[in-house]
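Study the following:
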Amino acid sequence: MSGNEKGRKRRFGSVRRLPSGRFQARYTGPDGLTRTAPRTFETQRSSAQWLVETEAEMLRGEWLDPDAGKVPLAEYADRWVRERTLKTRTREEYERHLRLHVRPYLGHVAVNEMTPAKIRTWRADRLNDGVGESTVAKTYRILHAIFTTAVDDDELIRRNPCRIRGAGQDKAEERPTATLDQVFAIAEKIQRRYRLLVLLATFAQLRFGELVALRRSSVDLAAMELRVRLATAEMADGSQVDDDPKSEAGKRPISLPQALRGDIELHLATFAQPGRHGRLFIGAQGGIPRRRNFNRVWKKALKEAGIPDDMGLHLHDLRHTGSTWSAQSGATLKELMARIGHSSTRAAMIYQHANRERDQAIAAALDVLIEAARGEIPA
């Protein structure tokens, strides 16, 4: 039955009655291939209406190839990662999240069969299985990005099935803030080659990867300025790679408190590798410090400095500590964002680069805090 209910030949597509009594619609797509509707219909009228809607989609340029979206999510996600221009460490991170948290649960589902309900169930199951909220949020953001490509670029589906409000937001746990006395106590007790690392983590608010990537040439003693250009990342195979910081904002000059001049000069003379491009920090065996090895040194220093175990203080917490003190020293939000190298798409129109004079003023204010603390704790 290719005509309509009144017997006239149908202009677009055809409808036939199946032995079951239901109706099947067929049509020729823009690619010249004959396709069958993904479902059958109870009445001839409903099947004809579906053909009208399908023809309208083709005329508006909104028709989607129903076969293209049949690719399993695991296959599509792997291709998505391969085609992205990603830093090595970021690529490894994406692949790990997909391997551990997506492929075993959603990998077999076709892209065009993914629904908001499936995504909600997947997320709830991961959380109920004890996967950390931050990990689930990160994986959700990756999934959202993958399906955005499927909608906007590849036109495999009409809408992104990742629609859970707030699911991609990290809910960071409250981290401890050290006191000035605690910072200098740790700096005194840690291995001497890492004393300056503790101070720069605090007063320059650097990440571990940024710290171990510093070179002699990163330090301008005349201007008391640090130039951050690289970050060292540890790969899954154990190799260490110098790469760009987490964002363009991570490439930044940082004014240093004058009170650290003596510490920097002593470190350069004693521990830094020779040559302009020698590393500022090296391990006891001459290699690039690794997080795991450094953590053992860090924990020993915490114990000797009398830092309570239940405080749970990590090296990265010194970055937060220093940022807090910078704010208390008068830094504006824009200046803080520039100093710590933070950037995000949401903040791109709000946060601007701090000017050099104000950054130096922040460092000068930190000087006051350092000198006050050193009045009680020797450098």
Observations:
- Residues 343 and 349 are 10 Å apart (CA to CA).
- Residues 344-355 have pLDDT under 50 and may be disordered.
- The domain at 69-152 is CATH 1.10.150.130 (DNA polymerase; domain 1).
